[in-house]
Structure formats: structure tokens, C-alpha cells
Design a protein that fits this description.
Blueprint (H helix, E strand, L loop, with lengths): L7 H6 L22 E3 L28 H4 L5 H17 L4 E3 L22 H16 L4 E2 L17 E3 L2 H8 L1 H10 L3 E3 L4 E2 L2 E2 L4 H11 L5 E3 L8 H7 L11 H12 L4 H17 L13 H18 L1 E5 L11 E5 L1 H4 L19 H7 L1 H4 L2 E6 L10 H12 L5 E7 L18 H11 L5 E6 L14 E4 L7 H9 L13 E2 L17 E3 L8 H7 L3 E3 L10 E9 L2 E8 L5 E10 L1 H6 L13 E10 L4 E7 L6 E4 L4 E14 L7 E7 L3 E2 L20 H8 L27 H21 L4 H8 L15 H11 L3 H26 L3
Parallel strand pairs: 1-2, 2-3, 4-6, 4-16, 5-8, 10-11, 10-12, 12-13, 13-14, 24-26
Antiparallel strand pairs: 6-7, 9-14, 15-17, 18-19, 19-22, 20-21, 20-24, 23-24, 24-25
Helix pairs in contact: 3-4, 3-11, 4-6, 11-17, 15-16, 21-22, 23-24
Length: about 800
Amino acid sequence: MELEELSVAEKAAMLSGGSEWDSRGNERADIPSFVMSDGPHGVRRQLGEGDHLGLGASKPATCFPTAGTVANSWDPELAEDMGKALGREAHDLDVNVLLGPGLNIKRNPLCGRNFEYYSEDPIVAGRMAAGLIRGIQSNGVSACPKHFAVNSQELRRQASNSVIDERTMREIYLTGFEIAVREAAPMTIMTSYNEINGVYAHENKHLLQDILRGEWGFDGMVVSDWGGSNAAVAAVKAGGSLEMPSPGFTSVRELEDAVKAGTLSETDLNARAAEVAKIARATRAEGVGRDDLLADAVAAAHHEVARRVAESSAVLLKNTDAALPLKPGMRVAVVGDMAKTPRFQGSGSSKVNATREENIVAELQSSAESTGITVTGYAQGYDRQGVANQALLDEAVALAAQSDTDAVIAVIGLDERSESEGLDRSTMAIPQVQNDVIAALTATGKPIIVVLVAGSPVELPWFDDVAAVLYVGLSGQAGASAAVRVLTGQTNPSGHLAETWPLQYADCPSADWYPAVERDAIYREGPFVGYRYYETAQVPVRFPFGYGLSYSSFTYSNLAADDTGVTCTITNDSDVPGATVAQLYVTGPSRTAQGDGNAAGVLRPACELKGFVKVTLAAHESKTVRIAFDRYTFRHFDVAANRWAIESGVWTLAVGANAEDLQLSTTFAVAGDVDAIPADPALGHYLTGNVKHVTDVEMAVLFGREVKASGKPTTFGVNDPISSWVDSRGFVARTIAKTLTKRETSVRQKTGAPDLNTLFILNMPPRAISKMTQGMVDAAMVDAIVTIANGHTFRGLGGLIAGYFRNQSANKRTAKELNHD
């Protein structure tokens, strides 16, 4: 039977999940159900019903480095190798759709989920994601880039409205997704929880139809984030294919009724059902042997892939007097709880049940014979939960001060509470007890080598006092051996930062308005995100975008540009083989001509990354590398004309090792399709990138409309988060919100990890309840719950009870209809 021949109810049933992780198939049309699983850096195949927050047990799988760490490799081919291993494991664990990679732009370093995202720059994010997607899908498994789009904070994540101007959205927040779609053709894409300019992502026609399908040519399935669908009929009209996890038959009835009423075209319903069926058939695994993941050879091989990725992603941030690599014969003390109890991934839905674990102490000890480096002892140094403990501090100092200790390796960073889905960081600082340990160790006079564990930038108050800093990020299950190989010189570090590290949080462009605590998250900084801000506004930083040291030294020469790209020569001037990343930045006509942002040409940052290549060089070897121009190199989005345009004029092309170390530059005449005209002087502070002083009037010019944030609602609706009930007039609702808030705080303090279930509930709007209860709660019952929140407890309870019985009867009728009884 053809898909179109199915009943409206049967096609509607295919557009929502049958369980936490499974789609609904249709036997009559030979459309199998398929399995989805979290998997940005490892397959989280849960047992039984499971949950979407990583709390339930899952099958063992390789834990690779997180996206924020992998991006520091600047190596899409390496990402593809990782993707091949991920896809193989997904295949062997009967997973059809792997939910990743994360492509959201790192707008602010405090976003709790930044470790899952690649970069502050869309070119790096898009190219790295494209590599991973190609690798995953080479196994017949669908990748699913997420969260589409403009999703930058965890607070109120299901009840937040990202207010953004069209040009910034297109150029910064969507370009990475565009690259991934055009270059890797993912079969699935996941929408984000938030609204974009007042319309939920999963029912945003401009996003899903005009841009994703119409402009980029995407022909796959669009799945909602779990609980992220708002209105089933609106989603189908706009291009949303599948809502997850499981609204039961509520959405089926809504879609069926809309078709009957003529408010939803059956053509749209057919299109969405066909998109779901396409995934089911494309990832079907008939006749394919599975379940050999845990074979020793496969597990060992994938552990080696994880190690190789971690090695290539480690970033050497400081190396005074060649403190690294450690020299044979050296005696080192190891300090830090994380050196023995490793932290190598973040918390939340991406958390993987690793096939094995390593720690730095054991890896140093086991490598002693081959490296000639001995460990004089280990001291915990600090309490992992941040509680001051003088005994631990004294033990570490005594170990460092021993006469047989030549240097100290201190492993510090962010703890499990700091980086998690559902919770933004409150500070860029690491726990004070760890800073205290470093201060005490440096007072011994011994060289201190810091190994830094964190998925996002942190403030480094002791940076000037230590000998070396190796940033390993969240480096996966093989991260410890990878770090030891870098420390001992078996691997030459070649990672470069894929995001800027500010000196302090107050320097961040969005620091004064992040995160938004009410409904509207206004992106008032416009395009000045990350290095685009720091380089334009000339704000000093700790480490510029693209920064990374090496045990080798490199020089750049012979820059040449032609109509299709640039070439330059890179030379390894040292006796040590190594690798570096050549980065191409462009400066538009407005800044090339006078350098003050006031010449002809649209508003632009001082420079923008437009290409890169990682190059490996033997000692004293030179290579000529080429970075090609493409559709992204010179374009800008012309809002008035609603199209991409290229300005004619003289541009500057620069190549170097990071955004501030551009050794080569040349001017280049571009023959575009529009003449450069002066930017509107009414943009004011935007013209110099000074976004911290932008006025509301200037912002209105950028946005093309007046922008005002909404305040606290006087009454609660289905899309206000449960956390907002603390202001409810109703005792029951107010008590629920306050109790949940206290519980989350208590659990986090007691266990050292966030209470993800409680955080999810607090951030969740009531309408999500009907999307996540497998049909037990429908939209009418949600309305009754909101009535309770608004202080009408008994009226709401009456509606809830009546709605329950009405919904149960309706579910039985729908089930009977679908079963053709």
C-alpha cells in the first residue's frame, strides 16, 4: 500500500513518537518504526523506556571528546573519522537516527551547554559538523544536527523568545547549519525549544520552509527537540515533520480534525509523513548483522580514535622556557582530584556510559619506562565540590616542596555542576579552592604545569605565575592518555581555540544582558559575537580566537590571491615535526578603506574567518597551502532585497595563526553584484563594535523595528515556564515552584551534580506536559493546569479531572480507529 492511501489518522500518527525514543511505523505501508538516540560525542542507547536527560542506564559506548573540544582540532577530516566510529556504534546498537552534532553558536561563555557546541564562528562550526555528519551517515545511520536555531541559553530554554535581526541571524546563527546541510546532506535536523522573533522554531515557516528547504534544498525530516513541539497543526503547515517524544494520540486528533475542517491541507500532511517514511526506509537495517559493538577489536579501535581526536584537540596555552614537553629523567608530582577521578564529559542528555576510563596519574605511571619520567607522588589538593580543606592543600604543598620533585602537574577545572544541559554557569571562575591550590603551589618555587579541564573558557587569575598551561577541554574516555602523550612530547600539540577567551566575564559583549530572565532574549549585540566583537572594539583578551602554541615554530610567507582563493607558504622553523592551522580572514570595503568603519560599505566586524586548513610539517619543511573562496567568503545578507549580496570594492585578505597574529595580508579587488554604499550613520555605536553602549534607538535601526522586552506576565499561560509560578497568586502553584527550586539546589549541593529532572520541569512550560506523557495529558488538561497556576485551584482541579476521563475515552476511540477495529 502506498503512503498516500493510508487514512488521515494513520498518516497523522506517523508524525509523533510512539515512545521516548521510537517513531511510529505503519505495517500496511511497510514503514518500520525507527530508533533515535542522543549521540553528539557517543551513543547513549538507553535500556527500556529510558529518559531524555541521561539519567537512566544506557549501553556502554565509546565516549569521544565533546564538540567544543573537537572543534579545537580545526580538522574536519578527523571529525569525519570520529563520525565513522560513532555511526558504526549507532548501527551496532540498533540506532537509526543519532541526535547530533550540536551547531549552536557560542554567543556567551556561560551557556551551560557550550561544551556540546563547536564554536563562536559559523565557518568552523559548519565545517566540523559537516565532517562528523559525513562520517556518521557513511554507516547508513542518519545524523541530526541541532538545535535549529538561535538557541543560546539554558535558562527558560523551553519558554524563551530569541529576538534577533534578520542579517545577524542569517550570517552568524544559521550559516553553520547551512554549511552542514549543503556539504554533508544530513537526513534529519532537530529544531530548538525557543521561539525566534515570536514563532516557535518547530512551527517557524520562515526557518523551515523559506530557508532550510527552499534556500538550502534540505529534503529530510525535521524533528522537534524532546518536548519542544508547541502546536501540531502549525508545525505540519510550517515544515515540522515529527514531534517527540510522545504526545500519545492528542496530536493525531488535532491533525485529523484540522484536515476535516479544512484548516490543514492533506497535501502538507502527506509531505510530512513522506519525510518520516523516508528516514524509516533509508535507515532500515534488514539483513545487517548488529550487536558486535562490544567485540574487543571494535572497542579498542574506537578507543584509539577517541585518543587521536583528544590529542589533536589539546591546546597549549602557555609554555614558558620550554617547560613542556617534560624531559626524560624528570620527577613530577601530580596534584588535583581530577587527575585521579577524571572528568571528561558534560552532564545531561549527551552523557555516555563509557566503555573504559583513564586517569592522568595512572597513565603517567604506566608510561614511566618509555618516557623516563617518574611520579614522586599524588595529592588530591582540593575538594571537588569547592569546600575549603586546609589538610588537602597542605598535603599538596608538602608534596610539591619535596627535594625529589622537579615539577608539579596540577589538574584543575570545572566540576560536574558547572556545565550541564538545563543550567547556565553563574560565573566564568573555577572554584576558588582550586585557585588557592595553584597559588600555594607556585609559592614553592617549583615549575607548575596546569592541565585545564573545562568545556568553556574560564578566568585564569594565576596565569602569569605558572610555567605552562595545557587545555584539554572535555576530552572523552581516552583524554588522560592523550594528555600524557602531549605532556611527555610523544605528541606535539596542534589544537587552536575555536572561541575567544576573555580576560574576565565582564568583557563579554553580551555580559550585561545574558541570560535573559524573562521571555525575550534580545540579541542586541547583533553580529558582534566572539572575536568579531573583541577585534572590532579592540578589547584585550586572554587568548584570541584561533590561538594555540606548539613545540614547533612556524612562519608564513608568499601570500598570493587570485579569483578563486589564496595561497601562502608555511615553514616549520624548528627541529620538531608539528602541525598548525592557517586561517584566512577577510575585511570588507568599509574597513579596508579607512579602518574606522565609516567608509563605504555595509556594517561589518573588523575581520571575519572565511577559511582554514590544518597542515602538518616535518622539521624545517615548507609547504604551499591553498584556501579556496566559496559562497560564504564575501557575501552579506541584504535585508531590504531579501537576498545574499557581494559588495564590489577593495577588500583585505589576511592569513595567520589566529585572529590577532595575521602575519600576511594583501588587498584584493572584488567585483560583486552591488556597489558599496555607506552604512547608516544612525547605527551609531554598532559602527565601531561598541555594543555595550548601543542605545535602543540604534538597536531599532539594526533590527529595522522598535524592540522592547516583555515584562513579567500578570497571568500565566501554557508557554510560561513552571519556574515563573513562584509569583503565582495560587498557593498550590507557588508551593510547587518553590519546592522544586529548593529541591534542585539541595540535590546539587549534596551530590555535586545538577538535578536534571527538576531543572527540566522548572524550565518547562505546561504545554510540554501534553507532549511528553504518552497521551495521558491533552491540551484541555494543560489549560486546567494553567488555571490552577493562576490561582483558581478548585476550578482547575475540576477541569483536570473531567479532562482526564474525556481524554481517556478519546484515546480509546483513536486507538480503535488506527487498529481498524
